[in-house]
Amino acid sequence: MTIVAGVDFGTLAVRVSLVEDRSGVIGFGTAEYPLRRDPSDPDFAAQSHAAHMDGLVEAMGAALVAARVDGRSVRALAVDTTGSSVIVVGEGLEPLGDYYLWCDHRAKEEASRVTEVAREEKVPAIDLCGGTYSPEWGFAKLLHWLRHNPSLRARAVAALEHCDMAAAVLCGITDPDQLPRSICAMGHKWMWSGEHGGLPGESFLQKVDPLLAGSHRLLRGRYQTSDKLAGSLSAQWAGRLGLQAGIPVPVGALDAHWDAIGSGIAEGDVVNVVGTSTCTMAITRNAACIPGVCGLVPGSIHPGYVGIEAGLSAVGDIFDAIARRAGSPVGDLTRGMERYRAGQTGLLRLTWDNGDRTVLVNPHLGGVTLGWNLSHTARDELFAAIEGTAFHTRIILERLAEYGVPMRRVIHGGGIPQQNEVLNRVYANVLGMPVLIPERPITSLGSAIFAFLAAGAFPTVEDAQRALCPPYRVVAPDPGEHAVYDRMHALFRSLYFALGAPRAEPAAVGRVLPELQTLSQRVRRG
Known about the structure:
CATH topology of the largest domain: Nucleotidyltransferase, domain 5
Structural class: alpha+beta
CATH class of the largest domain: Alpha Beta
Number of helices: 19
Radius of gyration: 22 Å
Number of domains: 2
CATH superfamily of the largest domain: ATPase, nucleotide binding domain
Strand content: 15-25%
CATH architecture of the largest domain: 2-Layer Sandwich
Helix content: 25-40%
Number of strands: 23
Largest sheet: 7 strands, mixed
């Protein structure tokens, strides 16, 4: 019997699952931490390193109590986190400020500059990340920090992704040359490419902005996939966590990517991890560059495959915002929605409330809802938002299919599909494909799988998945609903590119509102 700890740092909380190699999860604990927003700047989102680590201690303690095991029996620990969540540190990994959280969009100008110069210089890595650099990603955030913290620049020793910071701290690693660097995070968010020699060249970075000259120094370390070790748990952190010092800690990764592993991803699957945002992922042996898709990185999701990532910048956050404006919890608004039918609201919602991650990669967008009348309710808007995120997801899957990514199954990971059957039904009907939902929550199961590999309990990811991943229940599409959604998707797609692309050709949109009204009336008449 082998017990490991899988750690998942999400946007608002950390979850620790203690997992046994034969019986699965035997106990878990969670702890919340604050997300700092600025009412005067909707792009601002930050979190404290200390709050993260205090939360880990609390969640680990709760998991040990729930599992009724001695912490000294835990054989390995693995950590995934949000990303690109970036922190700049000084000597001894002392934070020089808070994390720029993944959903922080302050670096729009910096991202545009990276894109502009990368295209001019024909930097190969820009094609691997879809042709456009995002303000959610590492170099944009690092440059924003350098521009806005002149008094701290001289003290900067390293810039780190959250997953690498957490692993380094747990292992007591402070030498910048020995810092673990997750290929998952650095490949998708920092333009790192093993094929092209690692990070983009210093001359390119200096042309983006002289402040990035020498930034390779801030990004030193050991670039590895997650089947390699970051190190071993230090005595200090073993004491704080109640575990045995010296247990292996593998190189970390992005939370959604390991959720895909915990969902049972295999070649031919697309996994939508639906939470505050959505991360859409696939793995394949070979892949060509895909315009507008966040990255193709060998070894990022599964060490033996090319990982493909796309997604939506906000999903659950949009649902929460609608509920907040209505003064009602999301769960209350969802009640009764199971009776809604495709198109009945007459609303069509472009879910750009936090910009567009894929396929337009345009942070300068805002949410759009068409078709309002005087009787619409907040529940109607929420249903239209669910439909809108499904239409947007279909745009992404169409782009992946266009470039040859195999798609035999769609799996829904993340927290929302476990709680919102309306969402699963709408997605199945919009996509016209069965949607598979794990029968048990899989958050932190992916990190446990990599902990098991580090402990030597399973020889391969697939062996661990067969032993630990839950079975699925299937939500099948309804042909009649799918037919309605096909018509609505044609409207959505035309608006998506006409309104979202800065250089879009003129588009005739006069048919959109009458068509929405016609569909709504037909549905209501039955």
